[in-house]
Amino acid sequence: MTTTAQQQEELAALTSEGGQELGTRAMSGGVQVLREVGSVLRLSEAEAAELAERPGRVDGGLEASEDETTIINMGPQHPSTHGVLRLMIELDGEQVLRTKPIIGYLHTGMEKTGEVLTYLQGPTNVTRMDYAAPLFNELVFSLATEALLGIEVPERATWMRMLLTELNRISSHLLFMATNGMDLGAVSMMIYGWREREETLRFFEKVTGLRMNHNFIRPGGVAADLPDGWRDDVLRLVDSLPPRLDEYDTLMTDQPIWRERLQGVGAITTEEAVALGATGPLLRSTGYAWDLRRTMPYLHYDEMDFDVVVGTYGDCFDRYAIRLNEIRESIRIIHQVVDRMPPGDYRTQDKKVTPPPRARIDESMEALIHHFKIFTEGFKVPEGEVYVAVESPRGELGCYLVSDGSSRPYRMHIRGPSFVNLQTLPHMMRGGLIADAVAVISSVDPIMGEVDR
Amino acid sequence: MAADEPAEASTADGAAATEVTGPTEELAGLPVVRSLGQRVLHPARAELREVVARLREEGWLMCLTVTAVDYLVHDGARSLPEGIEPERFEVVVILISHAERDRLRLRVQVPEDDPVVPSLFDVHPGSEAMEREVFDMFGIAFDGHPDLTRILMPEDWQGHPLRKDFAVGRIPVQFKHAHAAR
C-alpha cells in the first residue's frame, strides 16, 4: 500500500511530539548550545589532575576540604555488615577518606553477666559471644578456669577439644567463604559454603546436642563422650570437604573477576597490623607467621603436623586464600587427632569440679552432696588472676579471669579478636573506593556478637 | 602444674598467690612478679606510658588488651607485691612479645577519687577501642586519648556498668491489660 504525500503529512502531524529534535546549530541561540554542552559533564584527565592539585588539597589529593566531602552512613542494618555494624564513611567522590565504626548494637553486658554465673554456668554465657565459633569461647573460658583451679584435664578431653575446635574452625571459615562470596556478588558461593557448614554443624548436633552455642567444653573436660560411630562421621565429613574446596578454587580463586575484586584491595602492612593489635588471618595475610597453635602451643598442638598459612600483600585476596587453606590445614590436624584419640575419661574425676553420674546419686550420700553443691553453689575457685588465650578463627581469643575465692568469677574479660581487628577497618579503607568497602569489611570477618559482647 | 606453686608459696611466706622468682627479674626497670607462672609488672600510674613505651623498645610490640577490674567488693587477698598500695580500680594492660613468645601483664592501681590513666594511644594505636571500652564500662578516663567517648553503651547512658556498685538490674515486666474490644 502506498501513501500519498498528503497522507504522510497528516500522519506526521498526528504523531509529532513537538520540538524535541535537535534543531540546526544556526537556528538555536547561545543558551541552547550551553544547555547541550552542560548536560554532560566532561572532564579531561589534564583538567582533573589540575583540580586535584589546586590549593586546599594535601596528601596527593586524598585530603579534601570539608565542604567537598560527603558523609554517608552504612548500616547498622546492611547486608554486608555481618550483623549490626554501623560505619560512618567520609567520601570524596567515590574515594573513602575517613571511616568510623560505630558498635554496641549487640551489647548485652556479657562480661557483667559472667560475674553472676558460676564457673559451671560460665560456658553458656561465653559461647554466645563469637557465635560462629562458639567452641573456642568455651575452650578459652574453661582453660582459664582450669588454670586457676590447677587441675589437669584427662587426655581424651584434651583431644576431643582439639577435634571439636578444629571442626569449628572449618565451619567458621566456611561461613566466611559463604558470606565473603555473597558480599562480592558470588551468590552461589553462599549456598555452597552454607551447605558444607551445615554438614559440620550436623556433626556438632550429634555430639553436643546443639548446632550452635553448645556449652559442651566445660571446666574440667567436656560434657559428654563422643557418640558411637563418631570416627566414621568425622572421616566422612573431612573426606567430603577437599573436593568441594577444589570446587571453590574453580569457582572463585582462579576466576579473574574474583581476583580483580580482591587483589590489592584493603592492603595492610605488618607494622600497621601489629600497631593496631590485629591478629589471626589479618596479621598472617601480611606475611607474618604468627599462629598461637604454632608459636605458643596449647592443648597438644605442639605434637601436630600442620602449616601456618601466610599471605604476601596483606590484601583481601590473601585473607580469603588464607582462610581457604586453613580449612585444608584443619583437615590435616583432624586426621591426626582421629588417629591418636585415646580412650579414657572425658572429664576430670575431681569430685569437687565434675558432677557425679546420675546413677551414683541414688547410691552414695557423698555423690548426692557433691551434685547438690555443684549445681546450687558451684565449685570454689582459688584466688588469683590469669590470662589464657587460644587461636580462634579470627585471631587471639583471650580470657582474663580474676577470682576472689568464691564460686563465681570476680571479673571475666574476653579479648575478642573481632573487636580489636575492627580497628583496622578505617586504615584499610582509606584511599580506597566505596565499592571496595564491602570487600574490606567482609575480609576482616567480624562477628558482632564478639565485638559488642 | 604451675597452678600448684602459688599455693605452696602462700603457705611458705604468707603472700597469697604471689611468688618472686629467685634472682629478681626486671623488665623496664620494674621487678617481675609471677602470677600462676605468668609475668606481671606493677607500674605506678604516672609512669605507665613511659613503661609501655620502654617495653615496646624491648620487643613487647603488641598491646593485646586494655581492661580494668573494680576491686570494691573483693573479699580475698589482692596478690599485690609489697610497696604497691591497693586502690579500688586496677587497669590491666596485656602486652605480647613475638620474639620471646610470652605475654606480660601490667597492673596499674587507679584511685577511686581520681580515675585517670595516661593513654597508650601514642605507643600502641591499637589500644584506642579498648581504652574507650574501659572508659565506657568503668568510668576510668585516659589522658591523651583522641576520642574518649562511650563505645558500647548508648551515648546518654548513666553510670558505668562494670563497676561493682552498678547493679545487674532487670527490666520490670509489665502486663498491660488488653484493650477492650471496640
How are the SSEs ordered, and which strands pair?
The complex is a heterodimer of chains A (453) and B (182).
Chain A: H1 5-15, H2 30-39, H3 45-52, E1 70-74, E2 86-92, E3 95-102, H4 110-114, H5 122-126, H6 134-149, H7 155-183, H8 187-208, E4 217-218, E5 221-222, H9 230-253, H10 256-262, H11 270-275, H12 281-284, H13 292-295, H14 316-340, H15 358-363, H16 365-376, E6 384-392, E7 395-403, E8 411-415, H17 417-421, H18 424-429, H19 434-444, H20 448-452
Antiparallel strand pairs in A: 1-2, 2-3, 4-5, 6-7, 7-8
Chain B: H1 5-13, E1 26-27, E2 30-31, E3 33-35, E4 38-41, H2 48-57, E5 62-70, E6 89-97, E7 102-110, E8 116-118, H3 128-138, E9 141-143
Parallel strand pairs in B: 4-7, 8-9
Antiparallel strand pairs in B: 1-2, 3-4, 5-6, 6-7
Give a structural overview.
The complex is a heterodimer of chains A (453) and B (182). With 453 residues, chain A is mainly α. Chain A has one domain (110-452): Orthogonal Bundle (Cytochrome-c3 Hydrogenase, chain B), CATH 1.10.645.10. Chain A is 49% helix and 10% strand. In chain A, the strands form three sheets. Chain A has a three-stranded antiparallel sheet. In chain A, strand 2 (86-92) and strand 3 form a beta hairpin. In chain A, helix 14 (316-340) runs parallel beside helix 19. The longest helix of chain A has 29 residues, at 155-183. Chain A is elongated. In chain B, strands 3-4-7-6-5 form a five-stranded mixed sheet. Chain B has one domain (2-143): NADH:ubiquinone oxidoreductase Nqo5 subunit (Beta Polymerase, domain 2, 2-Layer Sandwich). Chain B is 16% helix and 24% strand. With 182 residues, chain B is an alpha/beta fold. Chain B contains three helices and nine strands, in the order H-E-E-E-E-H-E-E-E-E-H-E. The longest helix of chain B has 11 residues, at 128-138. Chain B has helices at residues 5-13, 48-57, 128-138, and strands at 26-27, 30-31, 33-35, 38-41, 62-70, 89-97, 102-110, 116-118, 141-143. At the A-B interface, helix 4, helix 6, strand 6, strand 7 and strand 8 of A face strand 5, strand 6, strand 7 and helix 3 of B.
